[in-house]
Amino acid sequence: MALSIFVLFSTFSMCFLASSRDLLFVNAHSQNLTQSPITPINYDLYHSSGNLMEEIGALVHRHPDKLSVETIQARNKGYGADVTVVTYCKGKNENDEGSRFRILLSFGQHGRELITSELALRILYILSGEKIIPSMDQASLNSILDKLVIKVVPMENLNGRKLVEAGDLCERRNGRGVDLNRNWSVDWGKKEKDYDPYEENPGIAPFSEPESQIMRKLAMSFEPHVWINVHSGMEALFMPYDHKNTTPDGLPLQRMKSLLKEVNHVHCHERCMIGSGGGSVGYFAHGTATDFMYDIVGVPMAFTFEIYGDGTASSRDCFKMFNPTDLASYNRVLGDWSAAFFTIFELVPHKLAEIHSKLSVLKLDKLVSIDEYLDGYLMERRNRYGKKMEVLELGMQEIRTYFRLFLLSSVLLLFMFCSRISKSKCSRPIVSVMPL
Length: 436
Fold this sequence. Notes:
It is a single chain. This protein is an alpha/beta fold. The chain folds into two domains: 322 residues, Aminopeptidase (3-Layer(aba) Sandwich), CATH 3.40.630.10; 41 residues. 47% of the residues lie in helices and 14% in strands. The strands form two sheets. An eight-stranded mixed beta sheet has the order 1-2-4-3-5-8-6-7, with helices on both faces. A two-stranded antiparallel ribbon has the order 9-10. The longest helix has 37 residues. 35% of the residues are buried. Its cofactor is Zn(2+).
């Protein structure tokens, strides 16, 4: 009996020690995961937001014959934003812009994707002529650029970028926690089962954010033939749509797909994913800029490019996940993708030649349904004073006018009613009371 008790006790002790050892191993493993190193921003490679914008300003100042810059400001409910726009137009003849192909490029829409703004700077250096693409003849490049007007937004989300530089390396949203690539009106606000507000907060309404308002107005006034929204996190060349698993039909699909295939072959070495954003990534994105540009603005070729991603990085190590961390990778990304953009600049006139004459004549003055109107369909027209206004703003002006007329007519009616009552009382005959 005593021997049995001893054996039982020994077995229990061994199991307890084994369980404790396993528990300690799990705790140690979890602790290692939580304490895994987080890669800081490498300022030997990357510019701070302030330095990058200063360098762009100096570049524009050195080449006034090719480049110009403006900073657009907007504010909504106590939150303000500045968006810098650099325009390349050789000769800067604004009257000649309408006959050229127009390209709109946006970088840095998500704060943590620093490499995209570095690419914007590299492209501007090449446009200025201070840097070259070794594989491209300079005379040929100049001939290509003569046909183009290019607007570059180097850092769409400056406020979010500042949060990243302050230490929140995983922040992708703007300065008040809204994902700018979910704040557009096409299919806005729909949430998937795996919706994460930290990643995809669409805001309180379409275009609630000043940054999105600025970009919308810029696109509506510029009417680009090509839109490219540049991101990092993977390597991909996406066309519409992001909010559903379909692509445009017919000629638009063929035109966009042929361009992306050529870029993938020449510059991405067949490793980039091609297709619709919604059908390729594995999740739907609602309220994106590219879907709005294609469906509402009517941009013939609208793309989202993903230029870099490190799949080996932990989910907490965001700088490494979204940005190259060594000099060789940094230079490779900027070299490959800047060359890819200039290949696109070369191909665009050929891809759009058959419809360019139509696009020059067609304007956005067309009838739209009330659903499109309320869904953020914005087009420009001239009011009675000749000033350009967006339809939504014009509509709100008319509503305010009618509301003022309603108030005025209500006051007049009330005054007339009171006057009639007063006159009725005054004209009533006086009857004296006689005692019985």
